[in-house]
Amino acid sequence: MLLIDAHSEGITKSPLKKMGWWASDTAHLHFDEVRVPVSHLLGQENAGFKVIMNNFNMERFWLGAIAYGYALVCYEEALEWAQQRKTFGKRLIDHQVVRHKLVDMATQLTATRALLEDTAYRMGKKELQGSELIAQISMLKNVATRTMQFCADAAVQTLGGMGFMRGMKSERIYREVKVNMIGGGAEEIMKDLISKQLQY
User: Fold this and answer.
1) Do residues 159 and 75 make contact, with C-beta atoms less than 8 angstroms apart?
2) Neighbours of 152 (CB within 10 A)
3) Which of 9, 33, 45, 59 does the annotation list as catalytic?
4) Alpha-carbon gap, residue 140 to 60, rounded angstroms
5) How far apart, in whole angstroms, are the C-alpha atoms of residue 82 and residue 61?
6) Among the four 5, 82, 135, 172, which has the fewest Cβ within 10 Å?
7) Taking each helix axis from N to C terminus, what angle separates 131-159 and 169-182, rounded to the nearest 10 degrees?
């Protein structure tokens, strides 16, 4: 694991255009004979992968927590819109189909929050560490990002044409869904890790 000055001679960058995560400066990096001082070695030589692996649990936990927060924002925006927007002389929320959509969002949010809080509690207890906790953190990431995906989609649908417009929170969050589902390990990777931790 090396700490490299981005302005070092021999580094070139090719910016990448992305669906979301616009605040993150993402690029292809090319290293051509870049010299790195020995003092820039982080940890032991040839042990960089272990550093990355040790970070994954917290990264996945925080991705789960962030996904829950995004999902909650979508729900709140959809609820506020449904309470104010009128169609055919009635508020959107007065239509059963819209109420049911909001209930589905609230139900997934409640289940996700329960798993998030339980996982946070277990992470704080040393006697509850181990493979079972790693499995639960991975489950949390999958559940939370699926909740984010569901709530973003349901919110955009509830907002109708406005849900497609820049400036709406749900539109922005909709574009962030996939990177949260992939970052820290895609859903398929998480499922495989869970199965190994549970010794299937």
Assistant:
1) no
2) 28
3) 59
4) 8
5) 32
6) 5
7) 150
Rounded distance between C-alpha atoms, residue 73 and residue 76, angstroms: 5
d(CA 83, CA 41): 56
| H/E stretch holding 30 | strand 27-31
Going by C-beta distance under 8 Å and a sequence separation of 6 or more, which residues neighbour residue 89? none
Residue 117 annotated as catalytic: no
Q: Is 133 in a helix, a strand, or coil?
A: helix
For the chain, the first-to-last Cα distance in angstroms comes to 33
Q: What is the CA radius of gyration of the chain?
A: 21
Give the pLDDT confidence of 32-67 residue by residue, as tens digits. Answer: 999 999 999 998 999 998 888 878 999 999 999 999
If we measure between CA atoms, which residue out of 60, 68, 196, 190 comes closest to residue 132?
196
Nearest CA-CA partner of 158 in 67, 74, 88: 74
